[in-house]
């Protein structure tokens, strides 16, 4: 199963150094609830929606980690079906990864570029307010979400971290 794990640059360092991240942890995936809700039934579009949902969750993690760069991070991984359980209370595409995430399971990394840092920093400060319905806060979060995440192959993890 392909999952999208919200993360931070601090966790990318741990992933490189320890070759795993502890579980259980929140993630997103192409769930049946997401498929039913989304108008388009194109699998690629649905997976992109799950990736964006994970990017939004990454904002909360960045806010909670003062050592992390102010960039959203999403780790795409292939994990066994048994390692994931649905978490519909947390959102349409929400799942819970029950096991650790191993570097060998990672298929790609998605990280904001340096130009997104000011918008991401502002969004991390108000993402909870946006989730609670504040239109002003949502505008700030939308500014961060307007930045496209860069795509990196797993073997680019080391060079990517050197750029941060």
What are the salient characteristics of this protein?
43% helix, alpha+beta, 164 residues, ADP-ribosylation fold, 7-stranded antiparallel β-sheet, globular, two-stranded antiparallel sheet, 23% strand, single chain
Description of the structure:
The chain has 164 residues and is of the alpha+beta class. The chain has a domain at 2-112: ADP-ribosylation fold (Alpha-Beta Barrel), CATH 3.20.170. Helix content is 43%, strand content 23%. The protein is built from 6 helices and 9 strands. It has helices at 9-18, 32-37, 43-64, 117-131, 135-145, 157-163; strands at residues 2-7, 20-21, 25-29, 73-78, 84-86, 94-97, 101-102, 106-111, 150-152. The strands form 2 sheets. The chain has a 7-stranded antiparallel sheet. The protein has a two-stranded antiparallel ribbon with strand order 2-7. The longest helix is centred in the N-terminal third of the chain and has 22 residues, at 43-64. It starts with a strand and ends with a helix. 37% of the residues are buried. The model has no long low-confidence stretch (mean pLDDT 92).
């Amino acid at each position: 199963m392909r999952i999208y794990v919200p993360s931070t640059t601090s966790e990318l360092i741990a992933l490189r150094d320890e070759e795993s991240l502890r579980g259980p942890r929140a993630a997103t995936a192409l769930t049946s609830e997401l498929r039913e809700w989304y108008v388009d039934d194109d699998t690629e579009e649905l997976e992109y929606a799950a990736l964006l949902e994970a990017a939004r969750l990454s904002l909360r993690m960045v806010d909670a980690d003062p050592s992390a760069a102010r960039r959203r991070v999403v780790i795409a991984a292939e994990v066994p079906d048994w390692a994931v359980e649905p978490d519909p209370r947390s959102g349409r595409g929400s799942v819970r990864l029950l096991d650790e995430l191993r570097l060998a399971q990672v298929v790609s990394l998605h990280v904001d570029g340096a130009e997104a840092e000011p918008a991401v920093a502002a969004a991390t400060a108000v993402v909870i307010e946006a989730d609670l319905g504040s239109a002003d806060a949502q505008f700030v979060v939308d500014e961060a979400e307007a930045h496209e995440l860069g795509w990196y192959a797993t073997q680019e993890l080391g060079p990517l971290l050197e750029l941060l």
